[in-house]
Design brief:
The structure holds two protein chains of two kinds.
Chain A (H helix, E strand, L loop, with lengths): L7 E8 L5 H14 L4 E8 L6 H12 L4 E3 L8 H11 L4 E4 L11 H11 L3 E5 L6 E3 L3 H18 L11 E4 H10 L4 H15 L3 E5 L1 E3 L10 H17 L1
Parallel strand pairs in A: 1-2, 1-4, 2-3, 5-8, 6-9
Antiparallel strand pairs in A: 4-7, 5-7
Chain B lengths: L5 H20 L9 H8 L1 H22 L5 H20 L5
The chains are: A alpha/beta, B mainly alpha.
């Protein structure tokens, strides 16, 4: 099938303990990417989940084909940044889509990413919860307050030119992603923030698409004191060094 | 190592402002301020700080109350998940 844009899109799905969610996210990806006629592949990078995520991924590979579902498991839980490096090495697409496998990011937005990208020939498309039309489901007032406060602080200190710094639903040109990952040293939430800051340093162009973020429908969401402390540290690090 | 970091930018601006302010207050520059003007300049840093604080609180407050709750997105997802489970079971997937 020829793709309406002539591009190939690789979705990287780093998983750990996502046995229940993986089939659902893959089904949604097939529906929304295949349904629009795009040329795509899904790379599942499972970090040796004890719940059998990889086994379910193999079943999905049988259903959808080895050209669509590519398995690149790793031996242990090694973190997000290295998962992206690992995945990109095996990617055959010229655009890479990063998203969470826990259903908080809906694949229906990917066609909008692609449209936005072709409109402005952007290097990066970032899904944003904070712009008009975006939003979040399942957050209480406290969580919203922390999120808004943290975002305001980061916007004021870094002036990054993107409204959602900690979001992890994004699309990159393959070479841009490789370049940025090699420059980033942060982990967790700060990693996503650093990617945007480095992108601006390198002069890459960025477009934004409003997304709705549905906080973990199954399984629990995490935001503890440790996350807030490491966010603050990471923000100050970027403030002082970039 | 980058020299003109965001931190340096902020410190430079703050330093310039502070230099201008102290030279006016301690009459280092040959500028004669009227008594009323002097009082305005004297409390200017505090005044700016309060303005910035109010702006921050107002902005965060406004964005907090207008934070979009995507009720529809959740309902839509639940419905699609149900479809997905049925379809995948039909295709032979063991959950």
């Amino acid at each position: 099938m020829s793709s309406p844009t002539g591009n190939k899109y690789t979705v990287l799905l780093p998983t750990y303990q996502e046995r229940d969610n993986l089939p659902l996210i893959v089904w949604l990806l097939v529906k929304h990417l295949g349904g629009c006629g795009y040329n795509y592949e899904i790379i599942v990078i499972d970090d040796n989940s004890p719940d059998g995520t990889l086994e379910v991924a193999k079943q999905l590979q049988e259903i959808y084909g080895e050209d669509k579902i590519v398995l690149r498991p790793r031996k242990a839980k090694l973190g997000l940044g290295t998962a992206y490096v690992h995945g990109v090495k095996h990617a055959t697409g010229n655009f890479i889509i990063l998203m969470d496998a826990d259903l908080s990011h809906h694949p229906k937005f990917i066609p909008e990413f692609i449209k936005k990208q072709s409109e402005g020939n952007y290097d990066i498309i970032s899904g944003t919860r904070y712009a008009l039309g975006g939003g979040v489901y399942g957050w209480d007032l406290m969580r919203k307050l922390i999120s808004r406060g943290a975002n305001f602080l980061a916007q004021t200190l870094l002036r990054p030119g993107a409204s959602d710094l900690t979001g992890s639903f994004r699309m990159y040109r393959k070479d841009v992603l490789e370049e940025l990952v090699s420059r980033c040293i942060s982990k967790g939430y700060v990693f996503q923030m650093e990617m945007i800051v480095r992108a601006r340093e390198c002069g890459y162009t960025l477009g934004e698409v409003p997304i709705s973020f549905v906080d973990r429908l199954y399984g629990e969401s995490k935001l503890g004191g440790m996350e807030i402390v490491s966010y603050a540290k990471g923000l100050l690090y970027l403030f002082a060094t970039t | 190592m980058k020299l003109c970091t965001k931190l340096v930018q902020w410190l430079t601006l703050a330093g310039l402002f502070f230099a201008a302010w102290t030279s006016l207050i301690f009459e280092i520059l040959p500028v004669q301020l009227s008594h009323a003007m002097y009082r305005v300049v004297l409390i200017l840093p505090l005044y700016l700080l309060i303005c910035f604080g109010s702006y921050s609180l107002a902005t965060i407050g406004y964005r907090l109350t207008t934070f979009n709750d995507c009720e529809g997105a959740s309902d839509e997802l639940v419905a699609e998940v149900k479809q997905a489970r049925e379809d995948l079971t039909k295709k032979g997937l063991k959950f």
